[in-house]
Specification:
This protein is mostly helical and 101 residues long. 50% of the residues lie in helices and 0% in strands.
Length: 101
């Protein structure tokens, strides 16, 4: 089981290699980002982000997340404050979505 100190990360804290990710590492990434606990609703989004990236090679946009993940855009902002697509991608261990600052 990798830890944050043992995995390669970008200067913004995203994993360099998606295969390094596991659920415990996701919890560490979330805590580091100010999310003390990942609820079932968080996992719904994280799993959707990861699955979509692995299937399509790109992270979904916030709009797609709100339409297809089962979590509304409003709730996404409650679950992942300060940029849900970017933060959910980081926790999911995938690269920063295109268009995110």
């Amino acid at each position: 089981m990798p830890t944050l100190t043992a995995v390669a990360r970008t200067p913004e804290g995203f994993l360099e290699h998606v295969e390094d990710w596991d659920r415990e590492l996701a919890r560490e990434l979330a805590r580091e980002a100010g999310l003390p606990e990942l609820t079932d609703r968080h996992w719904l989004v994280v799993d959707y982000m990861r699955r979509t990236f692995l299937e399509k090679g790109d992270a979904p946009t916030i709009r797609t997340l709100g339409k297809e993940s089962g979590v509304s855009v409003k709730e996404l902002y409650q679950l992942f404050p300060k940029g849900p697509a970017k933060l959910a991608a980081k926790v999911a261990g995938i690269p920063k979505p295109h268009g995110c600052i």
